[in-house]
Amino acid sequence: MPLELRPLLSAAEMPEFISCYLAAFSNPDSPFTHLAAPIHDSSASAHQDRIQGFSARQWFAHSTDPSSRLFKVVDTERNDKIIAGAKWNINLEDPFKNGVPKASAYWWPPGPSKRYTEAVLNRLLEIRNRCKAYIHYRRQGAGDLMMEWAIREADRLGLEIHIEGSPLGSSLYTKHGLRVLQIAELNPPLGTQEEEADEEWRSWRELTNGLRCALLMRPVRGDWEGHDGPEFTPKGDLTTNFWEKQVND
After folding, report:
1. Residue 180 forms beta bridges with which residues?
2. Is the pTM here over 0.85, yes or no?
3. 111 DSSP assignment
4. E-assigned strands of 92-176?
5. What's CA 101's distance to the chain center, in Å?
6. Of the segments 35-44, 56-65, 173-182, 227-236, which one has the largest average pLDDT value?
7. Are strands 81-91 and 68-75 parallel, antiparallel or unpaired?
8. What pLDDT, in 10s, does the model give residues 71-101?
9. Are 133 and 163 spatial neighbours (Cβ–Cβ below 8 Å)?
10. What order of strands is seen across the sheet that includes strand 237-244?
11. Cα–Cα distance for residue pair 103/124, rounded to 1 Å
C-alpha cells in the first residue's frame, strides 16, 4: 500500500478530508465529534449536511489562519484515496501572548448544547495555553509520514513540537522523541444549578465523562536540557491535529 503525504490545497478536497476524520473517530466513538460536528436532525441528508457544514467551518478556519498547514496521506493504489489527515500550526511566537480567546460554538442554536460545547472548548483552550498543545488524531501507519515531516520542519525553523492526543495513542509520538507531560481531563467544570438540572446538559456530561487528552512535547531539535516538566513558555512552536482512517473499507 504505497502512501504519499501531500498538501491539501483547496476547499473542494475538504469533504473527503472531513469524511476521513469522522470515520477515524467513529470506532471507538469520540464524544468530541458530536460536539464539534453535530447531526441536527434525522433526515436522509443529515449525515451529508454534517460533512458539508463541518468542511466549510474547517476550511474557513484554515484559510483565515496564516499559521495553518493542511496535509493528507493518500493511498496511490486506491485512486489517491485519503486515508489520513493532518493540520499543523506553525507558530513563530507564543499564540496566547495576548490572552486566551473564548470559544464560540456558533454552529449550535442557542441552548444547553451550545453552552456545553463552549464549556468543553474553553477547557481545551485553557489546557493549550498552559502547555501549548493541540491535536486530535487516530493512529495507523501513515502517522509516521506526518511526524517525520513535522520533525524536519520544526528543526528547520528551530521550533518545539507540541501535541495533544489520546492517552492510548501516545506511543506514536514517543517513538518520535516526544514525552508525555500531563494527562488532562476535558470535562468542563460544573455549570449553573439550572444547567446541571437540564436534561440536555446532563446528557452531554454523561457522554463526555472521562474524556481525557495526553499533552506531549519535543523541545527544539530534541534537546531536553532545561525541560524537566510542563511549566515552560515557548516563544514559538509547531502544533498539530491529525488522524488516520482504517483502510479496510
Report:
1. 216
2. no
3. S
4. 160-165
5. 17
6. 56-65
7. antiparallel
8. 999 989 989 999 888 888 888 888 878 888 8
9. yes
10. 3-7, 68-75, 81-91, 237-244, 160-165, 212-218, 179-185
11. 10
